[in-house]
Amino acid sequence: QVQLAESGGGSVQAGGSLTLSCAVSGRTYSDYSLAWFRQAPTKEREFIASLSWRGFNPYYADSMRGRFTISRDNIKNAIYLQMDSLKPEDTAVYYCAAGGGEYEYWGRGTQVTVSS
Asked: Sign (positive/negative) of CA torsion 14, 11, 76, 35?
């Protein structure tokens, strides 16, 4: 079992930045990936970015490339999502996830609200 706990959400004005954190605990799956997703009201969950369990090979959805940066701190056992130049359409609940193939472990999410 893997436990994931997001933090760092909040309210920010358009153009601002925010960094989300996800604490990873429990069993280690060295062949798993860690990822960030988001879900806006009335929309489906959307993939943002992923990297390997040890923090290598970051991969981004095309629409997220450039403003979002995923990273991993193996000492703190956490992943991060740096979000820059935020827009009102980035308003969503942001989730971290872990899995191999499919993402089977999910955090509870953290709300990000971007005002214009």
From this structure: negative
CB atoms < 10 A from the CB of 41, how many?
Answer: 7
Under 8 Å between Cβ of 24 and 75? no
User: What residues have CB less than 8 Å from 85, skipping those under 6 apart?
Assistant: 15, 17, 67
pLDDT tens digits along 23-58: 999 988 888 999 999 999 999 999 999 999 999 999
At which residue do the structure tokens 């959400």 appear?
Answer: 9
What are the residues facing 68 on neighbouring strands?
65, 83
Q: Which residue do the tokens 């820059």 mark?
A: 84
